[in-house]
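Human: Here is a favour to ask of a fellow structure person. Comparing notes only helps if you start from a blank page. Give me a protein, with the fold worked out from its sequence. Please set it down just below, with no commentary around it:

Assistant:
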Amino acid sequence: MDIYQKKAKIIDGLETFTDKEKYWGEVVESKMKNYINQIEKNGFSVFKSALFEEDRSLYDFIFNQARADWRFCLPIKDNWQVLDIGAGLGANTFAIAQEVSEVHALEQSFLRVKFLELRKKEEKQDNIHVAVANALDFPFKDNVFDLVIANGLFEWIGVTDKFKSVRDAQKNFLKDSLRVLKNDGYLYIGIENRFAVSYLFGGKDHSGLKFTSLMPRVIANLYTKIRTGKEYRTYTYSKSGYERILNEAGFKNIKFYLVFPGYNFPKYIIPYEHINGIKFVFGKIVGGNSWRRRLMKKIIKFPLVARIWRFSFFSFAIFAQKI
């Protein structure tokens, strides 16, 4: 079945749907080029073994399938068609491809798509299709996918010159996601909480600066312009903020999970309403037996304290449906 509404250009064997290819990522561009050269010269398996010895953290970031454990919150079926937008280096794509019919992985970076293609050939995952495309310009027809994945992507959607308003860009992305989903299909978003307590204690926002997510947007924009010369466009939201924009885009049945230590490595996934689950995870996080830790464990047993901690949790796994 032809699922594309646009014709791709074939560049170096890769389907390409955008003239605005852009590199970004956890690995600097020069290093990614070096990785690609290593793989093409020595093979993917040799690269994988070398990376395991060189950088275990990056190795896990790419190959640890537990990064996609959020998928167990969904009623996944083996005939599902899945779209992974901003697929990165493939952690979610390759994990879920083992459980569904097809996965289409999009990236705006040619180098990252090249990496995904080389990995796909090594792992013989013929049900994965990769392409260079812009997250604000899907090349697909309507009602194609059972699941759209946006892991660590939604906060970056506003970094574009296609829309003056960040919120308009994000809403356009959500509406396009809704368009390509089948009825009863799911959208998954892995993302930070705007009011996470870590930001209060000086953790840097996606702007690269401290406290900007906590500021009113107008002030954050002025502050980042003064500090960096750029607008503040990496919007995140609170739970109610995400609910509002998802509802405005037309999504229904919106569910939130708290993920610890974060959506990129979800060791614990707790339904937002599950207060006892929050208490349990807090006990695991605190650990130890000092008087301070024992006191903290006692304090969290009060439902009000657990609810406050929930409000300032670091990140969410969000699921929403097209109904």
